[in-house]
Amino acid sequence: MDFKKISEGILGEEDIPKTNTELFLSMVAQYFPEAIKDGEVDFTALKEEMGEFQEVGSEHYDFTWAGKQAAKKKAQEDIFGKSLRYKPQDSLNPDTTENIYIEGDNLETLKLLRRTYHGKIKMIYIDPPYNTGSDFVYRDNFTMTDEELSNLSGDVVDGVRFQKNTKDSARYHTNWLNMMYPRLKIARELLSDDGVIFISIDDNEVENLKKICEEVFSDKNFVANIIWKHTQQSKNDEPYFSRQFNHTLVYAKNKEYLHCFMFERTDEDNKNYSNPDNDPKGAWRSGDVRSPNYRKTLCFDIIAPDGTVIKAPSNGWRWSEESITEKIKSGEIKFKNDNSGIIRKIYLCDQKGRTPENLWEGRKFGTTRQAASIIKELFDGIQVFDTPKPIELIKSMLFIASFSNSIILDFFSGSATTAHAVMQLNAEDGGNRKFIMVQLPEICDEKSEAFKAGYSNICEIGKERIRRAAKKIHEDNPDAVFDDGFKVFEVDGTTIRWNTTNDDEIKQLTDEDYSTGDKDSLDFTKGYTDIDIVYEIMLRQYGIPLSTPIEKLTEISDRTYIFADAVVVCLEPEIDDKLIEKLAAVEPTPMKFVLRDSAFGDNIELKELSFRKLSALIRNHQTEEERKRKYQNYTVEFI
After folding, report:
1. Which of 234, 301, 360, 626 is deepest in the core (most CB within 10 A)?
2. Distance between CA 463 and CA 441 in Å, rounded?
3. How far is residue 209's CA from residue 117's CA, in Å, rounded to a whole number?
4. What are the residues whose beta carbons fall under 8 Å from the beta carbon of 356, sequence distance 6 or more?
5. Residue 619's domain spans which residues?
6. Average pLDDT, rounded, for the chain
7. Residue 14: is it exposed, middle or buried by C-beta count within 10 angstroms (0-12/13-18/19+)?
8. Distance CA 252, CA 369 (A)
9. What is the pLDDT at residue 430?
10. Is residue 401 exposed (0-12), middle (13-18) or buried (19+ Cβ within 10 Å)?
11. What is the pLDDT of residue 222?
């Protein structure tokens, strides 16, 4: 009998789809847009998407840089030896919240979230390093050797050295591209089919960012380049022009599924609507009656009631002769008082909203100075973060691009403005949007106000900002009901001693460790908790969010847990008939049972008998209808 073991990696080789060529190619445009070049399939690019890479010398012209092949491979690689450990002491309202805050490298985090949130994220907003020459750069730039890295000064986080990407570096753009590319690749996997990503950037890398986005998301899914005026003041420290604008590139996962964006209408938007003729449909304004492009079939005369002939504009009318006749009858088109032309009525009652422009003025969408002021006010007059984004800016993106129950991801979360904006909008419109914030615990400079105030890294600032923002929103909106909590996790080592020959921890186990018979020491890493193990198992399930509560099944044993009413995890070191009977009695029947391999020792016969008994007992206590529907609809896996 074959007993399935939980995959050591998040993806697992057994889950890599093996499809025939015809089926795969029919999905290329949707799932692998990089393989589409000029409307045809580029089979070299297609092979790269499947993990096959040619030597550099054989590549044809494309947008490329040193390390691009390695960056592609990095995006496709599974992740091993890492997990997310729950930090209950840092969490707020963890029993009820659906919000998540994750401390750690965002590339590792994105990979850890690959199964759990695949296709689940409606909107992503990121404000990555702008590559200005002093930005903090993540240590996965593939063209730099460890020896080169060791010669550079920089910050060290969890034993990993990071460095400033200075403009005098020969790899100035390359380092940044290698950092961004794999993160965007995995981010696309997490987006829902109607999902959208907003990326803030300045002039330093906007062109390169647009190029890699067109590879990752396809140029067909480009939505807009929002120009945000982030400051109202002219800066005299600029040698040529005072730059007051930043870019926000917007790309859809698949623009065909993306809903139309609309802002709410304001009095200013409606000021040009009136009802001078007492039209029963209400206020209206004049609209264009001309065709935007010349079409001969639209060039026809219209006869006014007094017989006046109204000639067509140079490009023709906007509609066919039949359509215009119908619109005249309905009153949507009326003749001018002197019968010299026609007027199209655009009714206010038909306007569901206002299509947003791509020029966002700071007076309406906030400025950097206003954002800094809000942070300072939240933190009792201390400027703990220098360059936050305004709440109004992110809230506006959320308003047009998300739904009331959407999941929002920000994997460069900084001061957690996105989390603040999600809570603020939920409080205002009664929504239940959920946020996932990801931030590297970048060390605060010892000379900074943040460090002097007791914040050792940016994560500490972000978490405290969410707590204070939630409190402030409640004070300003006493009747509002919104999710004001968050669960905190950190990227850490695995909790499970996987059966790998190169596991350093297993090599370090002594004969004494084996002789004591302490199965926990042999199966799990030091410092673990049962909850840590269950969360690591949760990461390997499809579509079960990290916010899912974990329940202990005390009626079964002190070390048996269930989450999502779907996965039962039994961490008992020994298995007997009574335990099997209790597991079989769980209602409704879970889709998966996870047991410890060591609980059966070397007794394969006991393992087989337990497996068969579990199956028989489950079948026996089910009704006939349940048997038809559920029998063998569960699996048993081992760790």
Report:
1. 360
2. 11
3. 24
4. 261, 262, 263, 396, 400
5. 530-638
6. 87
7. exposed
8. 30
9. 96
10. buried
11. 98
